[in-house]
Structure formats: structure tokens, C-alpha cells
Amino acid sequence: MELQKFQYDNKTVKLFAYATIVWGLVGMLAGLIAAIQLYLPAANLALPYTTFGRVRPVHTNAVIFAFVGNGIFMGVYYSLQRLLKARMFSDLLSKIHFWGWQLIIVLAAVTLVLGKTTGKEYAELEWPIDILITIVWVVFGWNLFGTIIRRRERHLYVAIWFYIATFVTVAMLHIVNSVEIPVSFWKSYSWYAGVQDALIQWWYGHNAVAFFLTTPYLGMMYYFLPKMAQRPIYSYRLSIIHFWALIFLYIWAGPHHLLYTSVPDWAQSLGVVFSIMLLAPSWGGMINGLLTLRGAWDKVRDNVGLKFLVVAVTAYGMATFEGPMLSLKSVSAIAHYTDWIVAHVHVGALGWNGFMTFGILYWLIPKLFQTNLYSQKMANAHFWIGTLGILLYAVPMYWAGFMQSSMWKDFTPEGQLKWQFMDTVTKMIPFYIARSIGGTLYLIGAVLMTYNLIKTIKTGTFLEIEEDEAPALKGEYVAHSKDHWHRWIERKPIQLMVLSLVVVAIGGIIEFVPTFLVKSNIPTIASVKPYTPLELQGRDIYVREGCYTCHSQMIRPFRSETARYGEYSKAGEFVYDHPFQWGSKRTGPDLARQGGKYPDSWHYNHMLDPTSMSPGSIMPQYPWLLEDQLDGNSTMAKIKAMKRLGVPYPDGYEKVALSDMEKQAKEITANLKKDGIETLPDREIIALIAYLQRLGKDIKSEKITDKK
Amino acid sequence: MKFRNYLEAITGIGIYPLVSLMLFVVFFGLVTLYVIKGNKKHFETLSNLPINEKK
């Protein structure tokens, strides 16, 4: 058979590797800055751009989409070419993909610090960037499938299945969750509201973990682990079951982020059942990875990259055991809104994604530069510093989360809540400090790696032209007489993609359709009215400042919560919330029934200096809200957009909205004056006060009318 | 309160999780059957794909 000569594209792999390292450092640093602010709020340098609510989305987006994102592309571009015995389909597409992705990252970083956000976790980027992501993702897919079609290896190795599932599912998640109505170039409202928005968002959020942080990295595990250990995967059979069961089950599990919220009970139960089942394929994958090293553990001693991979797979096992446990309603009741979840996420991010990336880099960079790693010793030091960093990060957060939850739920024998919310905050400080030390160690490890790899690169020469040869695939495949249906899929990338899409779409459709259909059938709460223009503007400020990163707006039906915050939240209360702002973390107290709890002046003073109103508070100061002028000109466009989304403002209301807004602002200004605060009615703080004073009040008025 | 049942009572909603569970079980069964019955040699070839590269 005639052998065809071809060259691998190592340049794109190299570029993605560099980007992975650079953005990794940036993302971790942003995380550290955010972590320090939790006990030292002044570390925001009194700037809006560096305040927690904006830095936290920068951190999460940078780590997920910049660090891990580039890591995925590095791994895919390297392994795909070699598994298929073909160069990447198009150099131009590779170039567009690489630079397009970096452009997205830079735009994301700039817009997020400027407060341009949709307010939906891990999907904060505004609509123009959403469109750009879609385009670049399609370019990636085009390049991926082009390469697959031009391959010289008939069968698609299991790693490639994971890549294909990643491509198709991320596309689906991103498009469905990003449906939004633009108000201006950098502002949009989510198409969905309240319960539906929450369900879509956590379907997306959970599966961003599944199909961005997990499946591509599993594909990389299936390639790089056997490669580094020089032995085949423990069980290929298990990998097939792992793949199908994992993608089938994962997509259903989203509602476990919404247990005990206003999401319908059946959807919660569905999420729980599938989350528990998910343990099986996850552990199947972990066991498959670890058992690949059976009888070869001596290699782990000598190969530092392999060492990182072993801890990564172990961390994957721990996180995927913990995940299903956290999905049990009784466990979620304790863990949700606390730092336990933060610990859980970081075992995954630091352990699984971080260590997998480091391990691959330590193996790949010397290979690309035809040399040995500059210092094995330094890499080993990185391994231990990193591991210690993870422990120092996770252990205090587990402890703190459990403690915090217990304090929230503690009652005195007389039946009163035992602790003020502030007591639980001050108790957290030492744990926050310990966590930031753990994070610092982890970052130091990454800096060591960067230095080590730069030194390695300097001693080697880049292997730009790497040649290989393989026979071309013959056009016709003659099937065996007893050929199996699954083999047919294994050879056909498009069929594999379509079947993957069907498998992942079933879950989403079954979860959403009933929730969406019933909207028109079931009456909303009569007393729940759309936001006034001023409240709407205030809500946008709330979203802009990322208040949802620390405050929830969802009171669960527990005695400990209704005693602290008031009546538990109802689905009907959120029908005009585009986007929903339930939050996922209570660093500060829940705000769902904040309206009317304190006078306007309290909020004014609290925003200027939170400790003046609640001593011990770790909330940042927001002096700029007191000075900055509200952009009243956007009101008309905002009301119009809301009307398009079905919010029932009267006909032509957008024309009188501005005067309504000014009227309400004057009332609040007058209120403040009574308490000795002189301010202008057109300041942003006035709108924010209007919004905060509205929160959760609609139902209270309902009760009054009921009594009458 | 009159809004208590909002999104909670949907007639016949029980069929949804049941259908989904059935779908999964059938699909899982098919894949398992294939994996058990599949040709051992074929799986071996596949699992050696990453290792049989030139380097």
C-alpha cells in the first residue's frame, strides 16, 4: 500500500500552549485578588473595576474559558492530528480559531471589569461577544470535522468521541442560554425570566462543567495518559460505556443546582436521580484512567507529568463522588449557598483541570522543543506546592461551609435564631485567609512551572516540521459479515455527532418543555407587578456590580430561612426578572425580601460605607454609586425591550417612563433629606435604593389585600 | 395562597421522568450488549491507537 507523507501542525499547538500558561496565571491571579477582598475589602483599591463583584466573573471566565479553553485546544490539536494521521484541516482556520479565541478573552476581560455583564454565571459576556464566540466555535468545529474527514485512520479513537460531543454540546448550550434581547451595544436582557431563566441557566452552568471542564479533558486523559505511560487504556470497553452513559446522564443533572428553590419539584427530583446515576460513569472513567497504570506505577515516580495526571484523575474521582452526594436534597440543604460549594468546585478546577493541564504541559513542551525538561526537581517542587495549595484551599473551605450552614440553622432553646448573619461572616475570616494562602501556593507553583518551561524552551529547538506517513484510507469500507451497529458509528464522525446531539438534547427538551408550556396555562401572582423604570435601572446597576456573586434572592422553605428572611420565595414572584438573580452563594445575606426592611437612608449610608451600618461587614464600599449620574436616556430602550419580552407595561409607556422615573427619584431624594442626606435625584444610588426597596414586597401587599 | 400550585401541578408529568429513564436504560443496555459481545481484537486495535504512533 502506498504511504502518504504529511506534516503535523505543531505551531498552533505551541501557540495554544503558550496561551494556556499566560491566561492560567492571569485567571489564578484574579482569583487571588477576589479571595483577598473577602477579608480585606479595601484590596479593591477603591476602584469599581477591581471590586469583588466584577473580579469574580473575570476569575471564573478566565479560568474556565481562557485557561482551560486554551488547554482544550492545545490537547485537541495535538492528539487529533496524531490519532487521525492527518494534519489539521486548514492552517487558516487554525489561525482564525487561535486569534479569534484570544480576542474573545481580551474583550471579555475588558467588558467584565467595566461592568458589562448579562448577570448569568459563567455566561456573563454580552451579546456581541456571544456572537463572536459562536463564530469562533464554528471555525473550531469546521477544522475538527475537516481533519476527521481527511483522516488516514479508519476508526475514531474514544478521545475523539469526547471532542465531538464537546463541540456539539457546547454549541447547543451556548446558543440556548444566550438568547437575549439587545438594548444597546453592551446591554441586553435574557429572553427567559425567573424560573425558566434559572432552569436554562443551570442547565447551561452545570453542563459547562460537564462539556467544557470534563468531556474534553476526559478525551485528553484517554490520549495523554496511555501515551505518557506507554500502555493502552485499561479497558476500551469501559471507555465506550463511560462515554455514552456520561453524556446521556450529565445533561439532565442541572436542576440539582436549584434544590429547594421555586423550580418545580418534579424537575428537582429529575435532576437528583440523574445526578446520582452519574456517579457510575464518572467513576468508571476514573477507574479506567487509574488502572491504566496497573503494574506501571514505577513510571509515576520518574515521570513528573504522569504524577500530575494521577492526582488529576484522583481529584476527578473525588469531585464526581462529591457531586452526586451534594445533589441529595438533604445534603444540598446544608451545602448550598455556602463555601462548601466553592471547595467542591476548586477540587475540580485546581485538581482535575489544573493538574491535568500542568501534567500535559510538562510532557508536551519538551517534546515540541526536542529537549528534556529544564529541571525535574523544580517540576517536583511544583507538584508538592500545588498539592499542598489544593489542600490548604479546600480543607478550610469545607470546614467553613459546614460551620456557616450550621450557624445559619442554629436555634436557641427558646426558638429564636441563635446567630446574626454578621456573626457567621466574622467567623469565616480566618478560613478566608487560609484559603487565600492555599491559592497563593498554587499560583507560586504555576509560576515555577512557567519559569521551568521558559528555560526548557530556550534550551531546545522548536520542531516546526514534524513528518509522518500513513497509507490513505481506501474509499470503500468493506464491512465484516457480522459487523455491529456500533462499529458503524465508530467510523462515521457525522453520525457520531448527530447521535451525541440527540442523546444530549433529550435531557434538555424533557426538562424545559413542560416548564415552558405551563407558563401560559397558570396564572401569575396578581400582586406581582413589573418593575418601575427607576427600579429597572437600579436592577441593572445591581447586575452591573455583580451583587449576585455574594447575595442570593431565593429564600428556601426552611424554618431557619423564613425566620431570618421572611416568607419563602414563590415561582410567580420572578416572572418579570430578566435575568433571574437568585445567586448561588451567600457571602452576604439573602436579599429576596430586602424591600422595606430598612429606611432609604440606611441603604445610602450602607453603600457609602457598609461597616457604618453593619459593623464587621466585609462588603466593599460603593462610593461611586453616590456620585455617578444615572443614564436616564436608556430608560425608553429598556422599557421597550422589556415589552418585547412580554412584560405587561401599558401601551406607549416607554414615552412616559422617564417622567415616572424622575418622579419616583424625587420621592426617594425627599425621603433621604428627612434623614439629613442631601443628594441629587439623578444619582445611581437613588435607582439602586428604589430596586432594593422593591425586592419581595409584592407578596406582602398581596397578604394585606387577602385580609381585607 | 392561590399561587401555591404555580408550575407544580402539571397533569401526567410523571410520564416524563419515566420515559427518560426508559430511554436511558434501553440505550445503556444496547451499549453494554455491544461492549460485551464485541470483538476483543477490535478493541485491542482501537486501544493501541495512541501508542502505535511513530513517536
Structure description:
The complex is a heterodimer of chains A (708) and B (55). Chain A is mainly alpha-helical and 708 residues long. Chain A contains 25 helices and 4 strands. Chain A has a two-stranded antiparallel ribbon with strand order 1-4. A two-stranded antiparallel sheet of chain A has the order 2-3. In chain A, helix 2 packs across helix 12 (339-368) and helix 3 runs antiparallel to helix 4. By secondary structure, chain B is mainly alpha-helical. In chain B, 56% of the residues lie in helices and 0% in strands. Chain B contains 2 helices and no strands. Chain B is elongated, with a radius of gyration of 23 Å. In chain B, 16% of the residues are buried. Residues 1-8 of chain B have low confidence and may be disordered.
List keywords for this structure.
heterodimer; A: 708 residues; mainly alpha; two-stranded antiparallel sheet; two-stranded antiparallel ribbon; 25 helices; disordered C terminus; B: 55 residues; 2 helices; disordered N terminus
